[in-house]
Task: structure prediction
Amino acid sequence: MFRPLLRSSPRLTALRNHIAPPLVNRYTLFHTMSVPKTMKAVVVEQTGGPEVLQLTTSHPVPTPKAGELLVRNNISGVNFIDTYFRTGLYPAPKPEILGREGAGIVAAIGPETSGFQVGDRVAWMATGGYAEYTAVPAAKSVKIPEGISDEDVMASFLSGLTVLAFVKETYPVQKGDWVLFHAAAGGAGFLAVQILKALGAKVIGTAGGAEKCALVKSLGADVVIDYRSEEGKDWVKHVKEATGGRGVDVVYDSVGQDTWEGSLEAVKRKGTIVWFGNASGPVPPLPLPKLSPKCVKIARPTLFGYIETREEFEYYTNELFNLLKSGQLKTKIHKVYPLEDIAQVHKDLEGRKTMGKPLLRP
Ligand SMILES: NC(=O)c1ccc[n+]([C@@H]2O[C@H](COP(=O)([O-])OP(=O)(O)OC[C@H]3O[C@@H](n4cnc5c(N)ncnc54)[C@H](OP(=O)(O)O)[C@@H]3O)[C@@H](O)[C@H]2O)c1
Result:
């Protein structure tokens, strides 16, 4: 502890602090911010409907372990996958704080953790975003560059990395490819249409309702089908017409149960189906011989398989940040909801009421 040797004066105090900052300052500046003991969080004790999303105002703030950062979340993303963990479609231990991504300020740093400082503005991908604070692996956190808002990052982080990985690696989309993308006005879809157009693909987007279809069209999609309308119900026929009877080179299907059979029909001979979600329910077990007549390839990717290493994670986050910074990729926030309204966000997502990405302000 610094012990004053001389009588204090403003000049001496400044000099003293320069040589040896008082402990309290050093702690605040370099090790941790002032962090409360408890916080607001939404905890799911057991699987079920939106009613199991229980807000508590006295959840213990986590302590970052080795390799972790404690982030004070400014904004968190809400993804359809969160509903799968809520219902139990995807198993995860409960009680659980849902939310796979957040953006905010590093409030404290765990032991043996390098590359970050308290006060850094970061985005992270892990679990526990429906809370004021989250302890997250530093390996899955990244500093947000100047000039990009937390909101823009959250509207495109998990969703955008998913799209980038799936169009670059799962099926490397080529200029001139016909691509069918379902739920094209959603969190992932809104970004996908823009990214696919930038790659030179011919894009067919499906969406439910006139407003969503107009949004998809405004992004430059070549063909937009309202698959909930009377006219668009037979969307396979429209896809075939648009592609001269051939079918598309690739289908990106995250709707699942309601679309998978149509997707098999709409894909061309030797085409690919990238099935990556279950918005309408899971696809039933698929008999492999169904793929034979057209020699179809099926992929069932998950983003996390493409960003496992730090190198992969940084590659895709840099790609995304460059697209955002250059203005090539626009984001669309459906609405920023307060943490208290989390059940409503899930209802809106499952009720197909969202366009673009819903965000949560913890
Ligand atoms: N595999 C991965 O790693 C990965 C990563 C990210 C996302 N995903 C998947 O990608 C999909 C999109 O995710 P997102 O967070 O961006 O969600 P989203 O697209 O914003 O929301 C889902 C959309 O699916 C459509 N949908 C069709 N049938 C539906 C039904 N019966 N119930 C509810 N929605 C239905 C709705 O759009 P319309 O009204 O236009 O039909 C709805 O807006 C999800 O299936 C998600 O699980 C997978």
Notes: The first helix runs from residue 10 to 19. Residues 68 and 137 are 4 Å apart (CA to CA). The chain is about 30% helix and 25% strand.
